[in-house]
Amino acid sequence: MSGHSKWHSIKHKKGAADAKRGKLFTRIIKELTVAARAGGGDPDMNPRLRTVIADAKAANMPADNIKRAIRRGTDADTGVNYDEIIYEGYGPGGVALFLEVLTDNRNRAVGEIRHTLTKHGGNLGSANSVAWMFDKRGYVLVDRAAAEEESLMTAAIEAGADDFLDEDDSWEIISSPEAFDAVAEAVRALGVEPTVAHVAMLPQNQVSLEGKPAQQMLKLLSALDDLDDIRHVWSNADISEQEIEASLT
Predict the structure, then answer these.
(1) What percentage of residues in the chain have a pLDDT greater than 90?
(2) Is the pLDDT of residue 142 over 60?
(3) Cβ-defined contacts of 155-159 (< 8 Å, 24+)
(4) Which CATH number is correct for 133-203, 3.90.226.10, 3.30.70.980, 1.20.120.450, 3.60.20.30?
């Protein structure tokens, strides 16, 4: 999973810049709206909404913004509908890409994604072209300095986690999708806010990239992540810490 956690570290580092541009808040507002529309506006009865609210608070989103987004989701007369769509494709070096999209305009979303992939050495694939390379899993990433290993591991395993992994400066906690909410809540009950917490598409195997293909892939991931309609980008690319650091300078 190392490539997965490293890319999320990059996203975490650039999160402050995203928030300043309003992109992070825009995405969270969409997530809040869709979660509330799908499962109701009470977070105690809606685990998906509860998770997104935690993300919103971690991003320092004002409480009024959160409440408005939830009301927007529960109000049938708002006239705003978001479609949840999956796109699949390939990046530099033939690595697989699994894209989760949340959009109010399908044509805009696919056009922007296709343009971004082509610009950075990738291409859009057909349905199910790469989905078989990924497994749907609960995924929680915790900064190593934020929690004591034994207490975190015990809480996670007791809540239903399948794996607890040591990945550089983070702890990775993997579970079934069904156990994800319980695991994430067990972590937060320790007073620890995860760096990342969501149901993820994790690669079964990884493709190692170095040099120019690695840098192209990092630019592609960043460009995709900057698209407003993108929820999550999953890839089986394994890129070294040195390549990642070079991309950040």
Answers:
(1) 45
(2) yes
(3) 155/186, 155/187, 155/189, 155/190, 156/183, 156/186, 156/187, 158/186, 159/183, 159/185, 159/186
(4) 3.30.70.980
